[in-house]
UniProtKB/TrEMBL annotation:
[4Fe-4S] cluster binds at C156, C223. Keywords: 4Fe-4S, Carbohydrate metabolism, Gluconate utilization, Iron, Iron-sulfur, Lyase, Metal-binding. This is Phosphogluconate dehydratase. The gene is edd. Pathway: Carbohydrate metabolism; Entner-Doudoroff pathway. Residues 408-600 form the Dihydroxy-acid/6-phosphogluconate dehydratase C-terminal domain. Gene3D superfamilies: IlvD/EDD C-terminal domain-like.
């Protein structure tokens, strides 16, 4: 199909804007290539350290410098349900590599904190910066000149962007991402949300709430809502970095095991030792980044990626801005309704046609780049319209659905849920912000109400308990940006705001912090830039100021006389009233971090 002219124009703009940094980055990637393994350049002592614990034939193969050695970077821990299955991956991946005449070693581990555990807690102030720590840890894992390609084991929120940024720092190495799959369906997300709202209103006990949460998050595998973790998987497929249709195959199944082995085979085929060298740094170009953004918009994915994929792009020498997200949202329709944008979970999304159906629709409409390089030999993105199957114990890919198998969950380009993509870029005298319009019903997208200003999100719940909140209001939660306190998510406010909205009250949220990728229902302007701690306009908002938030008109304004507003002294944040809990360790990150619209990066990336 012919590429949509506007998509081609946006891609060309990114390419031209990025010409110099991208050229420097690609030159560095090319200079690092070697026809023989880098470990062949190590001294004998260095190399002996690198294979000292290898067993049997593995030791000889690594020492021989003629066969690929794969570095496994793992985010395994037992606290994250999504990452718990990775405990048993290294032996299986090593066995799969041996069967192909190659070797594999765990190169290193990366930290993997869970936003689901830290929501509303002090630990959330470390969450966003964990992405940059993961990137650094990935670079450390790959720094030994021992590997010819990398297998990345990670799924959740900051972990995949961190792995991707770190891997791009070693962009001459091919990389394959290996998902673990979602847990099977549990308590429907809509029912869980209803219990949360009743608890916020004192109508449900803690025991009832815990039982509902436990019935929802009940086994190994990714949480089943369409938040940042599952958005990660769709975006990786859209970039051709993860095997087609592999994202939402449940853990512990024969198909999951076959896909894991196929990921090893894919990595061994694309090293510099063969004729099909596909370094990660070359694969992640402006077309792949545009495909990722298109997939995000078409599926109503996580708002966190408006930060993460700006950062990922920069790690590859590419400059992407929120204006690019906005321009793409105007031509990319919303094709999926998955919680919080609907009632379905990702298992039902996959059964309805999933990524193969969505990608086929977008490709046929000229809304994705088919001609990108991918981890498969000679295959562009059209290969990602196929689904994996086991036939007589053998892994094959078959054509995915050509029509939606569940129109409540996925639809085609000709009959979308919304002609506009899932995100809105808001502008006005309060700065720039983002809104997730796909998760908000049309009747709740425009809120015109007085401000209730708090500098600590927990204050809003206290005001509710005291009966001090006006009937309609816009909650302004400021000093939550990256420089202020690491840009924590404000998901813990949603049960209260959702409850008030259910009562017929007009409510919204405006914050320079983030909102969970699992959040929806209530109109919100998030990632407000510039942030309040830097003297941004939010620091001048006062209780009672009339605010207008309109997700359809892309507007965020304080209706205050211009001279009055300009003459106000910006408020200053109060010293943290809670325990440090590691916060001081990230003081340099807060000092050096870039604004949200530049990726909220606290490390140097790219060429």
């Amino acid at each position: 199909m012919t590429l949509h002219p506007r998509l081609a124009e946006i891609t060309a703009t990114i390419r031209e804007r990025s010409r110099e940094p991208r050229a420097r980055y690609l030159a560095a990637v090319a200079a690092a290539r070697g026809r023989t393994p880098h470990r062949g350049r190590l001294s004998c002592g260095n190399l002996a350290h690198g294979f000292a614990v290898a067993e049997g034939e593995d030791k000889a193969r690594i020492a021989g410098n003629a066969t690929p050695n794969l570095g496994i970077v793992t985010a395994f821990n037992e606290m994250l349900s999504a990452h718990a299955p990775y405990e048993h991956y290294p032996p299986r991946l090593r066995a799969a590599a041996r069967a192909l005449g190659a070797t594999a070693q765990v190169a290193g581990g990366v930290p993997a904190m869970c936003d689901g555990v830290t929501q509303g807690r002090d630990g959330m102030e470390l969450s966003l910066f964990s992405r940059d720590v993961i990137a650094q840890a990935t670079a450390i894992a790959l720094s030994h000149d021992m590997f010819d390609a990398a297998l990345h084991l990670g799924i959740c929120d900051k972990i995949v962007p961190g792995l991707l940024i770190g891997a791009l720092g070693f962009g001459y190495l091919p990389s394959v991402f290996v998902p673990g799959g979602p847990m099977p369906p549990g308590l429907p997300n809509k029912e869980k949300q209803a219990v949360r709202e009743r608890y916020a209103n004192g109508q449900a006990s803690r025991e009832e709430l815990l039982a509902a949460e436990a019935a929802s998050y009940h086994s190994a595998g990714t949480c089943t809502f369409y938040g940042t973790a599952n958005s990660n998987q769709v975006l990786l497929e859209a970039m051709g970095l993860q095997l087609p249709g592999s994202s939402f195959v449940n853990p512990g199944t024969p198909l999951r095991a076959a896909l894991d082995e196929a990921a090893v085979a894919a990595a061994t085929r694309i090293t510099a030792l063969g004729e099909d060298w596909k370094p990660l740094g070359r694969l992640v170009d402006e077309r792949a980044i545009v495909n990722a953004i298109v997939a995000l918009l078409a599926t109503g994915g996580s708002t966190n990626h408006t930060i993460h994929f700006v950062a990922v792009a920069r790690a590859a020498g590419l400059i992407v801005d929120w204006e690019d997200f906005d321009a793409l949202a105007r031509i990319v329709p919303l094709l999926a309704r998955v919680y919080p944008n609907g009632d379905a979970d990702v298992n039902r999304f996959d059964a309805a046609g999933g990524t193969p159906f969505v990608f086929r629709e977008l490709l046929d409409a000229g809304l994705m780049h088919e001609d990108i390089e991918t981890i498969l030999p000679g295959e562009g993105l059209r290969a990602w319209t196929r689904e994996p199957r086991l036939v007589d114990g053998r892994l094959v890919w078959v054509d995915g659905a050509h029509e939606s198998l569940d129109r409540e969950v996925v639809r085609g380009v000709a009959d979308p849920f919304d002609p506009h993509g899932g995100l809105s870029l808001l502008r006005g005298n309060l700065g720039r912000a983002l809104g997730k319009r796909s998760a908000v019903k049309p009747e709740h997208r425009r809120i015109h109400a007085p401000a209730v200003v708090v500098d600590d999100p927990r204050t809003l719940n206290l005001l509710h308990q005291q009966g001090a909140l006006p009937p309609d209001f816009v909650a302004v939660v400021r000093f939550q940006g990256p420089r202020a306190n690491g840009m924590p998510e404000q998901h813990s406010l949603l049960p209260l705001l959702g409850l008030l909205q259910n009562q017929g009250r007009r409510v919204a949220l405006v914050t320079d912090g983030r909102l969970s990728g699992a959040s929806g229902k209530v109109a919100a302007a998030i990632h407000v830039t510039p942030e309040a701690v830097d003297g941004g306009p939010l620091a001048k908002v006062r209780d009672g100021d009339l605010l207008l938030l309109d997700l359809d008109a892309d507007v965020l304004v304080a209706e205050v006389d211009e001279a009055t507003f300009a003459g106000r002294e910006p408020a200053r944040p109060h010293p943290a009233a809670h325990a440090d809990l590691g916060r001081s360790l990230f003081a340099l990150n807060r000092l050096n971090v870039t604004p949200a619209d530049q990726g909220a990066l606290s490390i140097s990336v790219g060429a």
